[in-house]
Structures are given as structure tokens and as C-alpha cells.
């Protein structure tokens, strides 16, 4: 009598998994208890990406400089012998710390360009690292690198030292963005993939918006940097809670390790485990028969014609959305007024945009959503160029439309890219696109500065690039509900099958 309840309890919870063309999802289910748990712990790292990427807004917050020399108003003139910063709003910034004014004024913007350069480098370096050596070691490396280098920034004695370690923080931040996203995409099935991939972007928007809250209560830049960095100490839990991607292990032929991880996940999901080994071995044999498996690299994205077209078109979309998002956000923040409120508004637009992206990608698909969101940005920004001499409220409204379109595009390109690239080069593909996107974010401030030649110039450039992104989207195949491509051969044929069936 005492043995029956445990036996019944052990058998009753088992929930059979629907078999699909995806060998991994066929063992663990589309989205069950483990995938939800994994999402909730990995999503923690996404807050830091918003903090470190956009922390410059308050690290180098505008700090008025005045001249204390009698009868001299210009603090940058040779006649001014004594200057003074207005520290009523911020007690210290990197501008007051190293006197980044007058001839050195552009050094403040340069430090942010260096951050974006770091994200560019980190995206491709850690993308290739993850494809070559595994998702887990790449992810853990950049998580702890972000913590250590971020804390070193707090004690920077010199400007160049500050720039160097902000660059390294950015490299690590890019790595967390790329590898954590790929880890999630490789264990979530197609039915919930768009929901998970898009909701995963919301912590970035929350991180961006919460910067205003941090800065409101912490007015010294060193303590502000410390406050947005120390949270990364939580990442120590990843050592025990983040396993290697079973899909990467499967694709690279490490079946025993892949099967062990799948069995643990299946047990957590209350799914049967007795068929995992024979089914995974059979799936690998079929995969190896189609194409000899090898580790991919970024150059494989360009070896075959159709894969090359898809990579270029996806990269164009990343370039444009980063350019439009960061450029338009800077435009809105530069309109004056309360820096805390303006930053919160610019960041807040991203949250409803991300939520809308969930619905649009689910019912319209990735391709139509991308066309519509780029179109929204194009309309708002071209209107802004045409109405650049109108009242501030009109310009803010047009800029908000453009920014809203970009906030829908941003999570979609992550999702779309994760589904478009095959497993053997998925991290490299997403990393390459993210790297090219950072070129857009580096160029964006320079484009905004073209306002000196006319208020219409910058929004017109952003609008034209949004139209270019729409044109590139036409050549991309729809990925909604499709199994993830595994091999380079899958990557080349994916999308073409639909054309032949049409």
C-alpha cells in the first residue's frame, strides 16, 4: 500500500511531447516549466545591457560651464581665467571630472562612440566564440567580464583609462546580448518562440527607462556607474543554472552531453525520457547523412548565394534600426527640458512597441511586421523632415512615431535573425548583424549633428534608410512556425522550398 502512491505519482505527471521535425523540441516540448524557468533567470542579464549601453546619457550629462572672470561671459574665451561648473543638478560627471569643455567638448561624445565600437567588436567576437567553443563558456565569460570591467570604470583616474574600460564593458555587454539570446532560441519551440524572443527585449527598455531613476537619486557619476554595475554580481548563479545548449552539442556531434542535458530538461518538464537517446541518435545520423557536420564561421554566411542575400538583407535591417533608434532617441533627448523626464519618455516608447511586436509577429509573421515597422519609422521621420520648422510639439510627435516604429523593429530583428541563421552559424550570424547594427549607432550621433546645416537633414537621412530597410526585407523568407535550420545546407535551402511550392 505504501509503494503505490509514489508509483502513481511518478507516472501520472508524464506528458507526452508532440513529435515535430525538430529533434530537440521533440524531446523537451515547445515551452514548458524548464523553458519558463530558464527564461526568467537569463532575462536578468538583459537589464544590464540597457544600463551600460545608454548610461552615457547621465555619465556625461550636460553640465553648464560659466566664467567667473569679471566682464567675461564666454568661458571658452582666452580672456576667461577662471571657470566654474553648475553642479546644482549633477554633483559630478565625466565632463566635470576631466574638464571636457570648449576644445575638448567632443571627447564626451567620443567616449560613447567608443562604447558603441566595443559593442560592435563584442558582437562578432563572442558570436564566433560561441559557435566555436559553445554558448555556455562564451556567456559566462562576458557576464563576469561585464562585472569586473564595470567596477574598474568606477575608479578611473584618467579619461583614457575610463574610455578603455568602458570599451571592455561594451564588448562584454554585446556578448551577453548575443549569446543569451541564442541560448534561449535554441531550447524554445516555434509556437512560443516569437513571444519569448520579443518579451526578452523588454528588460532592455526597462533598463533604459530606469537610468533616469538611478540618476535622479545618484548625482555622482562614479556611484552611478557602481549602481548599474553591481547588479551583475547576481550572474554567479549562472555557473550552476545555465547548461550548454543541447542543440549546439547535438549539431556539433557531442551526442552524449546533449542527451544528458535533454534528459534533465525532460524530467523537469515531466516528459518521457526513455526515447531520447534512440531518437537523438537517429536524428543525428540523418543529419550527418545530408551534410558532413562541421563547425561554422562567419564566412560561411556568404559562401552560398541565397544565404548571402539573406545575411545582407538582415544586416541592412540591423544597421537601420540601430541608426534610427539611437539617432531619434538622441534627437528627442536633445530637445531640452527635464533630462530625467525626456529620457524616461524616449525609453518608455519602446515598451508598448515591444508588446505590440508580440501580437504582430504572431498573427502577421516576421516579414510583414518588419515591413510595417520600417514603414512607420519612414513615415514619421520623413514627416519630421518636412515639418522641421514647425512647433516643438509637432516635431516631438513625428519623432515619436519614428522611434515607435524602431521599437517594434528592434525585437523583431533579434527574433527574425535567430530563426533565419542555421545552428552552426547562428551566433556568428546574429553577432555579425549586431556588429553592423552598431555601425549605425556609431554613425547616428554624427548624423544628428548635421542639424547645423538644416533641421531637416538628419530625419530625412533616417527616413531614407528606413525605406531602404523595407526594400531589403522583401528578399527575406517568412520564418514563423518553421523548424530552425541546423546545417549550412539547411540555411541555403530554407525559404526556397516555399517558393517552389507556391
Automatic annotation (TrEMBL):
Residues 38-481 form the Major facilitator superfamily (MFS) profile domain. The chain crosses the membrane at residues 36-59, 107-126, 138-161, 167-188, 195-217, 223-241, 309-327, 339-359, 394-417, 429-447, 453-476. Coiled coil: none annotated. It is a multi-pass membrane protein. Pfam families: Sugar_tr. The keyword Transferase does not apply. Its main location: membrane. GO terms for cellular component: membrane. Keywords: Membrane, Transmembrane, Transmembrane helix. It comes from the Eukaryota. GO terms for molecular function: transmembrane transporter activity. InterPro entries: MFS_dom, MFS_sugar_transport-like, MFS_trans_sf. It is found in: Membrane. This is Major facilitator superfamily (MFS) profile domain-containing protein. It comes from Drosophila erecta (Fruit fly). The lineage of its organism: Eukaryota, Metazoa, Ecdysozoa, Arthropoda, Hexapoda. The gene is Dere\GG22009.
